[in-house]
Amino acid sequence: MTTRTFAATGASTDIMTIAFAAILGLGLIFAAGFSQAGAMHDVAHDSRHATGFPCH
């Protein structure tokens, strides 16, 4: 019986996690940097109403 082990599995998982976090972070910075303040306020306001939180 042959047993195979994959030593690179942990390392590749770490790389994928770091890459995902970096892409997500850069996407958030890009979205926040190039969006207009009025649009950001409207999205936050509407999402508070949609989840049932009072905002006034």
Describe the structure.
Helices cover 73% and strands 0% of the residues. The chain has helices spanning 9-34, 37-51.
Unreliable residue runs: none
Distance between the termini: 69 Å
Structural class: mainly alpha
**Main sheet properties:** none
- Averaged pLDDT: 83
| Share in helix | over 70%
| Quaternary structure classification | single chain
- Number of helical stretches of at least 4 residues: 2
Q: Give the strand content.
A: under 5%
Integer-rounded radius of gyration: 21 Å
- Bulk shape: elongated
Q: What's the total count of β strands?
A: 0
| Series of H and E elements | HH
Features:
56 residues, mainly alpha, Cobalt transporter subunit CbtB, membrane
Short description:
The protein is mainly alpha-helical and 56 residues long. It is built from two helices and no strands.
Secondary structure layout:
Blueprint: H1 9-34, H2 37-51
